[in-house]
């Protein structure tokens, strides 16, 4: 049975597509990027697909990734309304079959407000749909790619608990980036990731080892922003599912080892016009742009410069959208050893900068794009992409000029004298900045107050749990000698 024969456009096409099935799997995404779903009988599914959707408990926006209810009441889902149902609207365009689950049909859902039937602003797919609609208003299409780095362990959920999450066994030893030998170990698992992803409709551009014990890196194929975010979430689901079959536990935690590089979740972005032309690139016949802000942007269009300026201008105010966990900030240490930037910087083909300009002469003009190197693999791709595109669109709308100097023109003194602006260094600081009344995140055309208050509340909950926790480090350091 093939993974897909094309998404259905009508209910009759849908009925024909799943005529031989008895059940269907559906899922939505919560604020932490966790898939929440269920099996439905074919009849129930077809009934929901033929109407406005079906009821889905709003508690998935009222608890954290371990199903603990948030510390305080939030706007969208709370105890006061008894966690009433949201409307889960089936997105037929997301049809695919799950190869490792007997090719059961699978669909993603959008969560709608039950009263207005509008996209739920805190639904990850909802906010990215809103973002792409805003781009469409100026005749622009959002395109993106995601690269994941992830550690793999010879562990299971049961062994993690038994070991109390300590002394875990990496899948392979040593630092072996781009190794052809290390992939011969656990080869079936490594190959299955690529092959099953292709069957699952999650196209991969590159798949290899990265430096670190048991680390893989997978670059997902460039596509439209919403499809990219779907593929990124489903890639994690696929990898974790296949890992269970092979006795392997892949981890997308941003910084599982203190003395080793962390796991990035780099995102690549560009805009196209309605004809499909990349609007970040200059006209190939004209060559370098004479009115560019500097040499680093000479092959970036003026619109691309506005977009870049917008991202630089507001990125510190949306950091929780890019780095949503306590652990994620421990990855952002700067320096060439880890290539995890902690400052607001940019540069042509610079892996040390927060934003890497990828343009001619290193790539063809059509491949011109920006790589945002701040997020870790623990990001929610819907929120991260929404943040970057909304900031970029804000830069275009305001015609923000690029005034900051590129990475190659900065000196060590520039960091000391404040010329280089630093990013927030903790989730607590980042959340406080995002929730300020004057935050860019609250602006009209950005995320708005409802989203900021709800998502910010979920991050405050995460900080509260961290502040209340007693860590092994504290016990080892203080229990005897304090």
TrEMBL record:
GO terms for biological process: biogenic amine metabolic process; glutamine biosynthetic process. Keywords: ATP-binding, Ligase, Nucleotide-binding. GO terms for molecular function: ATP binding; glutamine synthetase activity. Residues 124-482 form the GS catalytic domain. Pfam families: Gln-synt_C (PF00120). InterPro entries: Gln_synt_N_sf (IPR036651), Gln_synth/guanido_kin_cat_dom (IPR014746), Gln_synth_cat_dom (IPR008146). PANTHER family: GAMMA-GLUTAMYLPUTRESCINE SYNTHETASE, TYPE-1 GLUTAMINE SYNTHETASE 2. Belongs to the glutamine synthetase family. This is Glutamine synthetase. It comes from Marasmius oreades.
